[in-house]
Amino acid sequence: MEMKKRIHLELRNRTPSDVKELVLDNCRSNEGKIEGLTDQFEELEFLSTINVGLTSVANLPKLNKLKKLELSDNRISGGLEVLAEKCPNLTHLNLSGNKIRDLSTVEPLRKLESLRSLDLFNCEVTNLNDYRENVFKQLPQLTYLDGYDKDDKEAPDSDAEGYVEGLDDDDDDDDDDEDEEELDDEEDDYDEDAAPKAKEDEDEEEGEEEEDLSGEEEEELNDGELDEDEDDDEEERGQKRKREPEDDGEEDED
């Protein structure tokens, strides 16, 4: 993909001044130029241009807030002095896999006073005697070289992934806050809606219980009436049996 088109896609309908992170890895640069990247990206803090065919950083725009610059696997062999002017606040610089052969090539980075981490993996300069010791002497502001400090202790965030994770964590925190607010709103809505509904359900249950009780009472009442009717019938039959013998006696006398 062409560099300019990739930048357009990365913007996602945002303005350049809204972008803090820009990843252009494996795009095609035009004659070593990063087309589409201008000084309008004034808030840019992280720029990754891995394997894009860069031969120089001379065409970088002025990016005052840029902190981390990924230039791995390009064909840069010098001209690093422009970085102090273009990106004066760099803290991390990755030049792994470039054509850097001499210590004098990295010496201009001394002007980057905020530079804390420098990576030169797979550059020929790393094969020189006392390479690490000499680089730390040339660049006293450095804390980490190729991911390790002077005492060979590994850097906690020595690569782009660590930095990007930091940005993602901030976004996650914002998302978590938004989710919590939405959850609180939903709980409030639930409480407001649930209260009258619970009251309605309670009233319905009481109504059903009253209906059940009424039904039972009616049934008991009906049973009582039936029992009384049966008693009356038995009493009538008994009186009738008493009268019958008397009638028979009277007939015999005649």
UniProtKB/TrEMBL annotation:
Residue ranges constituting the U2A'/phosphoprotein 32 family A C-terminal domain according to the UniProt record: 128-146
Family matches, as PROSITE patterns: LRR
Chief location bin: nucleus
InterPro entries: AN32, Leu-rich_rpt, LRR_dom_sf, U2A'_phosphoprotein32A_C
GO molecular function terms attached to this record: histone binding
Keywords of the record: Leucine-rich repeat, Nucleus, Repeat
Gene Ontology biological process terms from the UniProt entry: regulation of apoptotic process
Pfam families associated with the record: LRR_9
Span list, region Disordered: 147-254
Biased composition (Basic and acidic residues): 147-156
Coiled-coil ranges from the UniProt annotation: none
Xref: Gene3D superfamilies: Ribonuclease Inhibitor
Biased composition (Acidic residues): 157-193, 201-236
Subcellular location per the Swiss-Prot or TrEMBL entry: Nucleus
Domain of life: Eukaryota
One GO cellular component term noted in the UniProt record for this chain: nucleus
Stored PANTHER family: ACIDIC LEUCINE-RICH NUCLEAR PHOSPHOPROTEIN 32 (PTHR11375), ACIDIC LEUCINE-RICH NUCLEAR PHOSPHOPROTEIN 32 FAMILY MEMBER A (PTHR11375:SF1)
Entry function: Multifunctional protein that is involved in the regulation of many processes.
Similarity comment: family membership: Belongs to the ANP32 family.
Protein name: Acidic leucine-rich nuclear phosphoprotein 32 family member
